[in-house]
Amino acid sequence: MPSPYNLEVEYNCSECRVRAERLFCNMSEETVGTLDTVKFTGLYPKGSLLFVEGEEPRGVFILCSGRVKLTTSSTEGKTLIVKIAEPGEVLGASATILNKPYEVSAETIEPSQLNFIKRDDFMKFLVGNAEACMHTAQQLSEKYHSAQREIRSLGLSQTTSEKLARLLLDWSEKGGEQTTKGVRIKVLLTHEEIAQMIGTTRETVTRLLSDFRRRKLIEVKGSSLFIIAKPALENMVSV
Amino acid sequence: MPSPYNLEVEYNCSECRVRAERLFCNMSEETVGTLDTVKFTGLYPKGSLLFVEGEEPRGVFILCSGRVKLTTSSTEGKTLIVKIAEPGEVLGASATILNKPYEVSAETIEPSQLNFIKRDDFMKFLVGNAEACMHTAQQLSEKYHSAQREIRSLGLSQTTSEKLARLLLDWSEKGGEQTTKGVRIKVLLTHEEIAQMIGTTRETVTRLLSDFRRRKLIEVKGSSLFIIAKPALENMVSV
DNA sequence: GCAGCGGGGTGATGATCGTCACGATCACCG
DNA sequence: CGGTGATCGTGACGATCATCACCCCGCTGC
Questions:
Q1: Which strands form B79-85's sheet, in the order they lie side by side?
Q2: Residues A117 and A38 sit within 8 Å (Cβ to Cβ)
Q3: Integer distance in angstroms from the first to the last C-alpha of chain B?
Q4: Is the CB of B160 within 7 Å of strand C?
Q5: Phi/psi zone of residue B139: left (φ > 0), alpha (ψ -120 to 50 degrees), beta?
Q6: What is the pLDDT of residues B123-167, one digit of tens each?
Q7: Where would a tag sit more exposed on chain A, N or C end, judged by fewer CB atoms within 10 A?
Q8: Per the confidence metrics, is the pTM higher than 0.90?
Q9: Is A231 exposed, middle or buried (0-12, 13-18, 19+ CB in 10 A)?
């Protein structure tokens, strides 16, 4: 079946084959049926802005496939990437529940499928369905948990190399692939974006990566990055 | 009525006079009745450890009165104060819901009253009571929101003075008292603790505060701190 | 071809801030 | 009243990193 952006699309949550793996979506047939009646499926190309920091909450997005970059910016124009959201995450839930402005901006960095639920519908869904409410609470707990990790990393790291090492280790755990040369990571972000993830500058990232290469901690081949000396990297992080 | 630690204690949520002001506790009589049956009221002196980072979740604490310091530490012993919790907040909810280790440590910094709910009881309370679940979701949203603010501040601030200025402005908004000399803040933390709140060292805090004084931005009299030049402080922060 | 652009590499320089070191105060207590 | 510990003040020094500046490379469009 031809579909836009080379994306395999599932318009119907009840028939979604990956539902069981998704923390939020893994709910009873009945609840998912209700979900199907209020959601709007959308396909977004890379670079779509789902919502912007400061905007009044219109509702929530459930990320079905693809990846979404969550960012926040200072008045000076400096940008921090708070998180790269993965499939299964619910975006904008806290702002929607509190009816306060979105606290981050969300932008797709790959072609993505998202299900949108309008604020009113979402609130009714939560109030009327204990299971949905519970799963939302879980989802929010997850988000708080990961925010907490971010705070630790930003606040307790002494040096920038520590933060970079930590980021690489995080990546190797999440999306790493074991090879004979160590874990391979696909680096899909530019140095600029990596810098925005750890709160530093593009130049510093470039320099640190060269430094890591020189010290044989990592190896870079195109967009592949190999973790050669994992223990050494682990020694650098104290958080 | 005499009570320990000079604390006015309310053993019964149903009769609590400040309940309506508390985001979480402001629930129907019925729900609060249920809450009363599962909670254990505790009084804690200053310095009590409620739970420790990494520990398996025993349950949640509802802060009735007093204040609680939430911290996280690096393996090197450096400590970051994530948040000072105020009455009405629920502590340990995300860890309890996910059944993952507490992500922060909680320590009272004043004599405090807290209601404890065991994990099993709390989960049953949520599943069986839509209102409680909804209020918990709200509470978690609040926590996520404030964590997000913290991330912004830590990740986007260029200089330490910016973070300190921001902290003072935050305080003046939350607990400030208008006087002819500008807003008065009661500083109840040591320089060491302030340093831990903004991720720097004690010496730097001391120096920055002296600097702010020299530049007539603030004035210090004992534990009172006056914000003399609020606009100047606001100009320093870009987050 | 070549201009334009996004991305990466690198050097020079200076400000910031962590670290170490030492003193000064003040409260509390035997 | 001297001792002890917590807190604050301050100087000296050096490492780290942001900033600016420039260059290189590969790609795209004309």
A1: B49-51, B105-108, B68-73, B79-85
A2: yes
A3: 47
A4: yes
A5: alpha
A6: 999 999 999 999 999 999 999 999 999 999 999 988 999 999 999
A7: N
A8: yes
A9: exposed
CB of B208 nearer than 7 A to strand D: no
Query: CA of A76 to nearest chain B CA: how many angstroms apart?
Result: 6
Asked if residues A60 and A93 have their Cβ atoms less than 8 Å apart, the reply is yes
Per run of 10 residues, the mean pLDDT along chain B (length 239 residues) is: 57 88 92 94 90 96 94 90 94 97 93 95 94 96 95 91 95 88 91 95 96 93 90 87
Alpha-carbon span B213 to B223, nearest angstrom: 14
Query: Which pLDDT value is given to residue A1?
Result: 42
Nearest to B110 by CA among B139, B81, B87: B87
Q: Which nucleotide is nearest to A202 (CA to C1')?
A: C8
Answer for B211: CB within 7 Å of strand D.
no
Rounded Cα distance between A156 and A171, Å, is 19
Share of chain A above pLDDT 90, in %: 77
- Tell me the CA distances in angstroms from A24 to A90, A136, A141, A183, B118, one per residue in order: 8, 7, 12, 30, 24
Q: Any idea what DSSP says for residue A71?
A: E
Ramachandran angles phi, psi of A3, nearest 5°: -145, 155
CA distance linking residue A160 with residue A168, whole number of Å: 12
Report how far residue A114's alpha carbon sits from residue A125's, in angstroms, rounded to the nearest whole number: 18
Q: Measured between CB atoms, which of B94, B145, B239 is closest to A74? A: B239
* Residue A53 forms contact with B (CB below 8 Å): no
Beta sheet of A112-118, edge-to-edge order: A39-44, A112-118, A59-65, A90-91
CA closest to B137 among chain A residues: A137
Q: Give A174's contacts (C-beta < 8 A, 6+ positions apart).
A: none
Closest-CA distance, A75 to chain B, in angstroms, reads 5
Question: Rounded to an integer, what distance in angstroms lies between the CA atom of residue A48 and that of residue B158?
Answer: 29
B105 by DSSP, 3-state: which?
strand
Using DSSP, state whether B45 is helix, strand or coil: coil
Nearest-CA residue to the C1' of D20?
A203
Segment A126-140 mean pLDDT: 95
* Nearest residue of chain A to residue B234 (CA atoms): A75
